[in-house]
Amino acid sequence: MFNPEQIEKFKRLKTPFYYYDISLLQKTIDELKKEADKRNYQIHYAVKANANEGILQIINDNGFGADCVSGNEVSKSIEVGFDSNKIVFAGVGKSDEEIKTGLQHEIFCFNVESIQEIEVINSIAGSMNKTAPIALRINPNINPKTHHYITTGLEENKFGINFDDFDQILGKISSYKNLVLTGLHFHIGSQVTDLEVYKSLCIRINELQKWFVDHNIEIKHLNAGGGLGVNYENPDENLIPDFKSFFRVFEQFLELQPDQILHFEIGRAVVAQCGSLISKVLFIKEGLNTNFAILDAGMTELLRPALYQAYHKIENLTSIGKEKRYDVVGPICESSDTFAKSYILPETKRGDLISLRSTGAYGEVMASHYNLRSAIQSYFSDQL
Ligand SMILES: *Cc1c(COP(=O)(O)O)cnc(C)c1O
Question: Is the distance from the beta carbon of residue 46 to the nearest atom of ligand 1 less than 6 Å?
């Protein structure tokens, strides 16, 4: 929700733009930090959710580590000031150059996803005279009950290593001189709202841990990944995700070994609710069966609805009046450039300001130049 003073400010800015509520971001971070610190859980912020430099700085200032999925994310995190020994690096397809970047900076851990990747990291580390700390990304085969495009922990997904390959991997790792196995890593998917799923993950991790204990292999850290969901339907009822209940599941069901540290990689839940995409209505087009509200923002600024049918709450900030239904669409030459179909808004007219809520995660960072669109601005609430 925006107050009249904020809306007046929005009217003076060129649309579309991203707006970040920095006080909400800080409150979210405070809550996450409080609940994690209580349990000595280590948090790595998933940079891919939002790599806006100002946002990264705030997150780093609060002492979190970074979870990266590309060499450039590793470099960027270092540039912003993240402590290299709080950086984890995941991804199914790390290039040699990206692996070198991680080794040069002596990051905390490579989360490795295939047998061949382990071989390549060992050989590159050898050529640089380094030892690479690695965590095996294990595919726990758990269905997170989220959209299939953001499911990552099933055997059919491209991510992670299957349990069947363990024997083979362990044999190899012990013969590699430039690797040290420090952890086990899991990430089952994103926008997970059913906490029972995490309970299943804990039980699965316990089973897997037993295998390592039985083989006398010490695992210093576990990394349970991220994925905690947010309330897209009613953001104002749930601005800060329930980190407490989330961590309680792990506290209750995950059996940590003595001195073992539990890590998390949280992206969406930190940044989603603090961001809004503010756009202007260019035209209203009355169709036969529906009316179109055509915005000056499209899938080039916010891809999630086109990419995985994501829902974002839409608000008209400048008109009140009789409600009507609209297909809210962008200007891009693709039919999938649609934010919502048959969406109820107050009667909307050309020039109205529209907010697309909960767009702080996987919003700005997925912007593209398709149709030769220009990059857009972002504004922080404390600087407007
Ligand atoms: C994307 C990703 C995350 C963060 O997921 P969220 O749903 O944003 O919390 C964490 N770990 C890995 C390996 C990822 O790819």
Answer: yes
